[in-house]
């Protein structure tokens, strides 16, 4: 099911990303970079169903590995330590992060490069 997402994806646009980063407490300099950078997202799946998502840009590269629907520990690009669950709903990748009593929900739509 997730195999349709395997490949290299290019970010076309981010909606309300600056407000999202501001809400998280990301400083102004990093927010400016975050609004300019358009990372590639490289997705692969191994034979055990573990998904690897690598976000790669000139600014920073991050990588997470997970199984759909299973909670895992994530260190985010802004160095938050979260409990994260990735799910697939209606063809969209949903990322739910919780930390310090807070929660974010990210809905990803990427176009194949």
TrEMBL record:
InterPro entries per record: Calycin, Fatty_acid-bd, ILBP, Lipocln_cytosolic_FA-bd_dom
Keyword Transcription regulation attached: no
Superkingdom: Eukaryota
Keyword Membrane: no
GO function terms (MF aspect): retinal binding; retinol binding
Protein name: Cellular retinoic acid-binding protein 1
Family label: Belongs to the calycin superfamily. Fatty-acid binding protein (FABP) family.
Pfam families, A to Z: Lipocalin
PROSITE patterns xref list: FABP (PS00214)
Keywords (A to Z) from UniProt: Retinol-binding, Transport, Vitamin A
Chain's role: Cytosolic CRABPs may regulate the access of retinoic acid to the nuclear retinoic acid receptors.
Entries under PANTHER family matching the protein: FATTY ACID BINDING PROTEIN (PTHR11955)
Domain annotation Cytosolic fatty-acid binding proteins: ranges: 7-24
Protein species of origin: Periophthalmus magnuspinnatus
